Amino acid sequence: MRMHAPLAVIATLLLFLHGNPGFAQETSTEPAVDAGAATTAEPANSGQEPIEMPLIEVIGKPDRQQKLPGSAQVITREMLDDSRVMTTNEALRKAAGVNVRDEEGFGLRPNIGIRGLNPTRSTKVLLLEDGIPLAFAPYGDNASYYHPPIDRFDRIEILKGAGQNIYGPQTIGGVINYITPAPPTTFTSGVMLTAGNREYVNGRGYIGGNGMLLDYVRKQGDAARDNTHSELDDVNYKAVVGLGQGQALTVRANYYAEDSQLTYSGLTDAEYANFGREYNPFRNDYFKADRQGVSFTHEAPLGDATLITNLYGSRFARDWWRQSSNTTFNPVGAADSDFTACQQIVTDRATGTQVDPDSCDANIGNLREYYSFGLEPRVRLAHEQFGAGGELEAGVRAHFEEQDRLQKIGDTATARSGPLAESNERRNQAYSAFVQNRFAFGRVAVIPALRVEHVRYERTNRCPNASGSAPQDPAACTAPVSGEADITELVPSLGATWAATDTATLFAGVHRGFSPPSTADLINNSGVTVDLDAEQSWNYELGARTRPSEGVVVEATAFLNDFERQIAVGSIAAGSTPLATGQTRYEGAELLTRAEFGRIFDSVHNPFVEVAYTWLPTADQESAFIRADNGTAVTGSAAGNRLPYAPEDLLTVALGYNHVLGIHARIEAVHVGRQYADFANTAAAAPNGNGQTGEIAGYTVWNAALNYRLPAARFGVFVTAKNLFDEVYIADRTRGILPGAPRLVQAGVEYTF
């Protein structure tokens, strides 16, 4: 099914509905006690009266957090503002258990891994926005080539452990739910402008009132390397409409556009040594993307229960024209007349010789368009059954995806069209259901849950005779070939909590981890189904959280993720390492704490300390990874080796000072331990290495921010420094060496009208 019509209908309905906006009234008189509940949220950057708003939260208010059978952390608006985060990467590093790897240096495509899972393209993490799937194809292609700017969000919820199974489809590492600001009830507006080195400019303006909020963000600047520059626009609209009789509707619409001069390839070892971290010869590579999304969240009483329903749809398109996907890749096949010149670039790069990309008259355009659409009703009910107080939550979801994928071969370095090398259509239909009940026996609660996922895959190769070495005019394509497959999985979980005191809770849980294979993994380009089951694991967790005094929060968790089948594409992009499966094991612990001494001692002076630490002593291959295409072991993979991109230590420590007169200052250190870049645990890069193997040394980056907000006015100024001491380090080797961003210094002003 095509998604164009549903999106058009939803967009038309959105415009019609908000002809007479209003704010929701009497949606809930009780604090939120579960994930599907109306929330009272303070409007962003204003002192206006809070409103009630239907949305899906995975954590919610503190009383809800105490009841969750798993690790639960919230990165607040205050933390985001005081540290003046530039990217989502910076924000997520404030949470324990989360490994975020930089890519281009502008934070446009964060690579997020949780508890040792490979962060490449965030494929093993469930990303939500207000409880709605954020990825453009969470079932068929869960790779993050799009991510909203951090400026859009009011706070971030991070839930791990057994409690995540009622979301899905990814239920292994954790779920990250980005919460957008609540619309204000009375008129408010504001602007913020930030500028810094590397041509960085960030402007934001918002206006709201009567249950509506319109927000616009414009960002532009140079990324971490030469010949990289990005410009993006993000428009977000949100409204809360009161429908009477206890009903309310949250309406959202957003538009995102990106225009980036951006390469995909990293550096060879010789290039990095000879020319430094900012070197990038591929000045002709460009990435353009746009996304439109709309959603509705409706809440209504249903007898003694509450029904909350999400209806959502999105379109995402991106074109990436590039001459290289990694350090050993050239964009044309052996039959091309320019093969010699293009191959010479690969050879020169390996030896650290500067290259001119214009000497290779070819490039490749990966042109993608995605449509997704879904409907998810959830019901919640407080009850007294089996002699225990209970909270039941159950729901179903129907989700549909369509991918239109073209690859074209350009005949010049700057071409933006050409004959086809690939023409694919991929479709997914996913149906899921879950039920969870919380049985409370005094201070002890037991929370069993069950989720079922059924996914149907379809793939059609519309031009089987096209390839990189033999591109075709569309009129010359032979008859298409198609394949179909489906999977069904039961995903159980069992959690428990014990409120040891009024301020301390112990929690434990075990849950089945589930991650569906992508369409391309399950059905090859000839329409043949690959013998590949879904990724599966058993995940265990034991922890405690406490608020021992006013201003102090501590959460400590031990975890074990045991995979009987983990799917990995290896550590090298562009298909040079095959799809493979193996047995793995992750063991570790997390610590998150914040202490505000001004609140402890009831003082106007409020120094504070924050710590987020992850220790991962075990991230082991329990067996060699076996290739899905031919059944042989992946080169270098062996039982006992450590998995790539799983650092043993992650630590963020922040010291700060707040004062009631409007001073907010903080300095933080972000440490990432050493890690391997390949299954073989190669320690040292080979002479003239391709940059894709070799140990990545640990590094520490310091950030600082100083804010001053006039107490009697609506005016504030700030200055911030990222990578304060200009640390030179390698962040990634998946496509060759990607260096960390150099020092960034920014200053800004903000004003609320």
What does this structure look like?
This protein is mainly beta and 753 residues long. The chain has one domain: TonB-dependent receptor, beta-barrel domain (Maltoporin, Chain A, Beta Barrel). 8% of the residues lie in helices and 49% in strands. It is built from eight helices and 34 strands. The protein has a 22-stranded antiparallel barrel. It has a five-stranded mixed beta sheet with strand order 3-8-9-6-7. The longest helix is centred in the first third of the chain and has 14 residues, at 4-17.
Describe the protein's topology:
Layout (H helix, E strand, L loop, with lengths): L3 H14 L18 E6 L9 E6 L5 H4 L6 E4 L1 H7 L4 H5 L5 E4 L9 E4 L11 E4 L2 E2 L21 E5 L15 E5 L8 E9 L3 E10 L2 E11 L6 E16 L2 E15 L7 H7 L10 E17 L2 E18 L16 H13 L11 E23 L2 E23 L9 E22 L2 E18 L19 E18 L5 E12 L3 H4 L12 E12 L5 E17 L11 E17 H4 L4 E17 L4 E2 L21 E11 L3 E10 L26 E11 L5 E8 L7 E3 L5 E2 L4 E9 L1
Parallel strand pairs: 6-9
Antiparallel strand pairs: 1-2, 3-8, 4-5, 6-7, 8-9, 10-11, 10-34, 11-12, 12-13, 13-14, 14-15, 15-16, 16-17, 17-18, 18-19, 19-20, 20-21, 21-22, 22-23, 23-24, 24-25, 25-26, 25-27, 26-28, 28-29, 29-30, 30-31, 31-34, 32-33
